[in-house]
Amino acid sequence: MGSASSSYRVIYLDVDGRIQKVVFSRYCSSSDIKELFCAAVGVPRNTDLSVLDSSGAMVSIDPTMPHNTERSPYRVVPVTGGPLAGKEELFQNVLTQVAEQISRVFRINEMKADVTNRLAMLEKRVELEGMKVVEIEKCRSDIKRLREEIGSQNRIFLEDHKNLSPRRDVPTYPKYYLSQDTIEALRWTTFDAWQWEPNEMLSCLEHMYHDLGLVRDFSINPITLKRWLLCVRDSYRNNPFHNFRHCFCVTQMMYSMIYLCKLQEKLTQLDVLVLMTAAVCHDLDHPGFNNTYQINARTDLAVRYNDISPLENHHCAVAFKIFSQPECNIFSSFPPDAYKQIRQLKMMLIKCCDISNEVRPMEVAEPWVDCLLEEYFTQSDREKAEGLPVAPFMDREKVTKQTAQVGFITFILIPMFETVMKLFPQLEAAMLQPLRESRDRYEDQSDQVQKKNAEL
Question: Is 347 exposed, middle or buried (0-12, 13-18, 19+ CB in 10 A)?
Fold first, then answer.
C-alpha cells in the first residue's frame, strides 16, 4: 500500500500572475475539482473553465490530470457565455474543442509507414501484375518477413495476444437481405438491436457505409470493408456490456444522428467517415474493467500509458493495428495528410452515442442496464478480493438499478444532450424527451421500492 500522500494530487494554477496551489483527493469527481478551480480563480462555482498548459494545449479537468510545478502552472480561462455570431460559429467552436481533446486522448506511436507502404506495394505487384513464378515466390518471402516485422512491433497493443490474421480470402459471412422496413428502421433511435445476430449486424453495418455514400466517395474496396468489419467483430471480447452488440448500437445511433441532424449538410464526407469509423472502433478489445481498475491494479495497460486514459489509448491502438493490415485498411486510398486527419475524432458526438441507451424504448434500454451492472459487479467483486478501492456505484451491496439510473440520467445524460441540442434542435423530440420520460419512470420505481421497504 502507498503512503497517504499518494491519495492526493497537487496542481498549481496561474491566477492573474499569482500562483495558486490546489490540493484534491484522487478520488474526487471532475465536478468537485472544477469547483475547487472556480474558487481558486474567484469565479462562481458553475462557471465553465478551460485549463491550458504552458504550450497552450487544453488539459482535461479530472482526477488523473497530469501534475505540474510552480514553474509550470496551468492557466485557467473562464469560458464566457455571450452570444455567438451564429450557429455555424458555435458548431465550429465545439468541433475545434472536441478535436483538441481527442487528440490528447488518442495518442499512440506513429505507425511504421515505410514498412506498411513497402508491404502494400509488394502485395499489389503479386495480385495485380501477374508476375512470373520466381518473382512471386520472392515477393511472398519479402511479404512474410515484413509482416512478421510489423507483428513484432505492434504485438504489445493486444493485451490478450489476439491473432489478427489477415483475411486475404473473400469474407464468408452470409449476406443477409435487408428488407425496406429494416432499412428504414436503421435510421431511427428506436432500433432494437437485441433481435439481430452478429452476422446480421455485420450486414447492417456494411449497408450503413454504402448508404451514406462512403464506399463510393472514398473508393473503399467492398471486400476490404467486409474483411475490416470481420476483424473488428473478432476484436471485441465477450463481455456482458462492452461487446460487439454494444459496438453496433453505438454505430447505429451515430447513423441515426447523421440523418436526424442532417450532418452530411453540415460536415464533410470525411468527417462522416471518421464519425462512423470511430463509433465502430471506440471500445475495441475492452477487457471489461474500467480505467480506475487498470490504474489501481497497475495493469500492463496502465503502466504502458502512464495511467493516462489507458483504455481509450488501447482502443485506438488496436484500431490502427487493424488498419496497418492492407487487407483490412479501408483508408488505403487516402493520401498521408488525410490519414492524419482521420486520427482526430469528433469526441462529443461519439460520447453521446456511446451512452445513449436510455434514449431508446424501455424494452430495448433496460436490458443494457442489467448488462452494465453485471460488468460493474464483476469488477467490484475482484476489487474487494484484491484489496482495491471500490466505487459505490459499482458495489452490488450499495447500488440499485433505479437510484443509479436516476442519477446518471439527471446529471450526465440530460445535461450532455441539452448541450448538443444547442447545435441540433432536432434532438429535443427524438432524444431529450425519451430521456426525461426514462428518468421519471425510474424515479417512480425508486419511490415504490422505498415505500415497500418502509412498510416492511
Answer: buried
